[in-house]
Amino acid sequence: RSEMIVATTSEQLRDALADGKKAAKGRGGKGEVGLVPTMGYLHEGHASLLQRARRENDVVALSIFVNPLQFGPNEDFARYPRDAERDLAIARKEGTDVVFMPDVSVMYPRPSQTTVSVSGLTESLCGASRPGHFDGVATVVSKLFHLFDPDRAYFGMKDAQQVAVVRQMTDDLNFRVRIVPCPTLREPDGLAMSSRNVYLSPEEREQALVLSRALGRVDGWLAEPGITGARLQERIVDTIGTAPLAVVDYVEAVTYPGLLPAGDWQPGDGTPLLLALAVKFGRTRLIDN
Ligand code: AMP
Question: Does residue 175 carry a pLDDT above 70?
Answer without folding.
Answer: yes
